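dumping these here so i dont lose them again. two proteins, back to back, each one seq then structure tokens. dont judge the mess
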Amino acid sequence: MKDFSINNQMVKIDKNAKNINVDLTEFFAKVSVNCPTEDAELSINGEQKGVGRWEGMMIPGKYTIEASKDGCHSQTRQIEL
């Protein structure tokens, strides 16, 4: 259940059984970052994530993604999940 938030609810079961619907709420977003500049370093909110490509699960929020390489102009993008 690592990709879902946990919602707890107490349910009373008695002799009159009933169907119970359970909805799982996605809590993470799958994010992929690709930089076409060869060997560009990728960081998210200032934390080094990899070179050229990064993929991972992120919680909702605002993020700054930066690609940088010596001798090139850095590129920065703001995203909100």
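---- next one ----
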Amino acid sequence: MMARRKKDFGGGNCQVSSTLYNAVLAAPNLAVIERHAHSNHVPYVKKGKDAAVAYGSYDFKFKNNSGNDIKIKCSTDGNSVTTTLVTLKEI
């Protein structure tokens, strides 16, 4: 599953965690354990699709219930953040 967000003011760590949150929501067998909404609207994601993080207080956590390992791949091209979740199969 892949999620992409556009570049805008704000973001940083929370733009990455929000993009990961949306990828997790789109993937089967992944369960959100902890997620916090921002207190105000953030411009880089639709309302209710954000995941605020703050060292020592807010975190984003999910559980992998798929039975397979996953790899989280994140990248940016300077205009957007992309997160891809890849299922790793045992050989």
